Amino acid sequence: MGFKDLLKKAGQVTKKAIDRAGKEVKWRKRVGEAKREILTRFSVRQLKRIAASKGISLVYEDPI
Q1: pLDDT value for 3
Q2: Residue 28 Rama label (left phi>0; alpha psi -120 to 50; beta)
Q3: Residue 52 near residue 62, CB atoms below 8 Å
Q4: Distance from CA of residue 16 to its chain's centroid?
Q5: Between vectors from CA 26 to CA 10 and to CA 37, what angle results, nearest 5°?
Q6: Which of 30, 37, 47, 63 is most buried (CB neighbours < 10 A)?
Q7: Between the CA of residue 52 and those of 41, 47, 49, 56, 58, what are the distances in Å?
């Protein structure tokens, strides 16, 4: 019975991890959609002005 209980417990832990990962993916997707929705409300000129005032480069720079 001990081995069976161990497998049952491992299955429960795995299921919880999978559920947690699924929720994380959904959360990140919602955050990404919200960010895109906010950005679509600005014109390119406005975004460039905001980036310049904050000192943010709009050109992608490879960190490597």
Answers
A1: 82
A2: alpha
A3: no
A4: 19
A5: 165
A6: 47
A7: 18, 9, 5, 6, 9
Q: Find the largest Cα–Cα distance for the chain.
A: 68
- Locate 53 and state its tokens: 């005032």
- DSSP label of 30: H
What's the chain's length in residues? 64
Quick one: pLDDT at residue 1? Answer: 57
Give the span between the Cα atoms of 47 and 53, in whole angstroms.
Answer: 10
Q: What is the pTM of this model?
A: 0.56
Model confidence pLDDT, tens digit, residues 27-64: 999 999 999 999 899 998 998 999 999 998 888 777 77
